[in-house]
Design brief:
By secondary structure, this protein is an alpha+beta fold. It has one domain. It has 3 helices and 11 strands, in the order E-E-H-H-E-E-E-E-E-H-E-E-E-E. A hairpin with a 4-residue loop joins strand 6 and strand 7. The protein is elongated.
């Protein structure tokens, strides 16, 4: 299960041969009045399989390091990846930015998912993680420290959210935000656009 989902907000990703686990990051989503949107992730990620190897043996082989470094070229072929660099010890620095048209789904590194249901409800969330996944992640010793902000247009009806910060002045100024510091946190927001 570790390969498919590594956290509530810290989820496995299939961009590399294994999993990417968000570490220190800023993620953003900006929903437009017409239902189109943009999303971004900037920060470090740790390759989950490399982290398991480091936890087990305390080091990565020269071949492992070389293979992880070569994965940067594969990452750069993704149209949403703006920059990627290998920092060593299974850690990468990434900048990812995506734009989608109304109704088109997005899975941004399994960290942020934006989907529109048949009922028109837009769900912004991160991957779910079961108890085993949470336990496995905690054993890797990866410290999660991130922020997610979501901007919604004025024609949005917020149906549900679990944000730790909300817009001020009657919801007119600011963003919905989540300070992510634990695998227990799973951002979730559901909105419906009026008109």
């Amino acid at each position: 299960m570790l390969r498919k989902s590594l956290v509530a907000f810290v989820a496995g990703a299939s961009l590399l041969a294994g999993c990417l686990v968000p570490e220190k990051f800023t993620a953003k989503a900006d929903i437009q009045p017409d239902g189109s949107y943009s999303a971004s992730y900037t920060g470090t990620v740790v390759h989950g399989l490399a982290a398991m190897q480091l936890a087990k043996t305390g080091k990565l082989s020269a071949n492992d390091e070389a293979g992880l470094k070569r994965e940067v070229d594969k990452l750069k072929h993704s149209p949403d990846v703006q920059s990627a660099s290998y920092l060593g010890n299974g850690k990468y620095e990434l900048a990812v930015a995506a734009k989608r048209e109304k109704g088109k789904a997005l899975d941004l590194l399994n960290i942020l998912s934006i989907k529109t249901g048949k009922d028109g409800v837009i769900t912004i969330s991160s991957a779910k993680m079961d108890e085993k996944g949470k336990k496995d992640l905690s054993q890797l010793g990866i410290k999660v420290d991130g922020t997610l902000t979501v901007t919604v247009p004025r024609n949005a009806e917020v149906i549900e959210h679990n944000a730790t910060g909300t817009p001020s002045f009657f919801g007119l100024v600011g963003t919905y935000s989540w300070k992510i510091g634990s695998v227990e946190q799973r951002p979730l927001m559901k909105i419906r656009l009026k008109g």
